[in-house]
Amino acid sequence: MTRTTKNRFTQQLFTRPASDGRSIVYVRFIDAESGLVLATRSTGLDSDSPAKDIKASVTSILADLNLEAIARMKDRARRAALDDDERIASMPAFEFFSWFWSDESYYLSERQDADRPLSKGHILVCRKYVQTNLKQFEAFSLTPVRELRLSIVEAFVRKLRKAGKSLDVVKRNLDTIRTPINWAQARGLIEAPFSFKTLVLPRRDSRERGILSDEEILKIVDLPYAKPWVAESGRMHWDVRPRPRQSGGRTYDTPPMLDVRQKAAIVMALFAGLRRGEIRGLRWCDIDAERKLIEVRHNYVRFDGDKAPKKMSLGTVPLAVELEQMLDDLRALCESLGYTGANDFVLPGTARDRPVNEVTIRRGWERALELIGIPERERLKRNLLLHGARHAYTTRLLDSGELSPAEVAKLTRHKDLSMLSRYGGHLRDETIEKGRKALSFKKEADHASQ
How far apart are CA 359 and CA 176, in angstroms? Predict the structure, then answer.
């Protein structure tokens, strides 16, 4: 039912169900000139109440409302929003992208208020691309937001391709502009909305991560490690000493040894398949020594600190024998520092509330490869990265023949079995040797006797 009040304001009665099953009557006051809803109130009566009682309740509510004042306030807010839309739509695209990823961004603040903030690392990457590649594309500086077109985005992609940018770099640049453009389109700020789906991207030219052989993994397991040391000041240091220094015109390098955290981090990647952030985030409460399990439920990443693991990556992994000894040694050393509380990091950093630094882990990986006879040139050629240790973990599980793909997926925490298919491309020397033996009619002994 709709009625007009003072010619300008209208009333609409409607009902909403209450928790006790009754149908409660509400009244909505609308400004007929602007179409804005000025206020919505409950009459406190159900739909079975006499019409005169409902009318009396509405009259009482209306007496407490200054609809003229509310209309002026709502109109001012609406005009301010329209003015703000006009301001944003008139911005040069480059200025808009810069604002969108800044601390003043409506989008970022709204995500924060909704308790769904974007990763700080992602925001910083977007800011970086705005100030490099986007800034160098003249069309973004000359074109206002309202006039953005797909053809302009395509021209930007072509410029990146001609500059030899990889597919991953092109995609990161597109991510930097896609979110703000979609945000602007949803608000009607772009005159001719468009989709990114028709963009033609460059061919992926990425190299497959290399993995270590079983022999190389065993060599890493056998590497010694340095224990923490105490400086003259009495402060305990985890890193290997002495640091590189110069004396008498000669440079003395860091001793060719891993510190205990570096060795443990590498073993965790090789024998538990943990990612770098999961290694750094591991707490003592995550390790069940009696059941020989590791619960993966923490992730410590740059800029964002402690957060949940990668999407859908919570899970449980077995505690390999090679890792047990390392954890026993770590616990003993942590106990000497008083760092064995349930929420203390298994691999502590320079302070109790921070884990080992990413750089420390990376340097440990590179040093470990040097120590087992893989120099930098070969490491780069084989593309041996720490995350490749997780690939080695997965490949060894698949090649063992002891586990079904579904069981392997549970231990690697891949929720989609199709994700395992990319690990099938890793052809190890051990696999080739198994194939050679399987295909041979003659046994090794028969061949040797001839």
Answer: 27
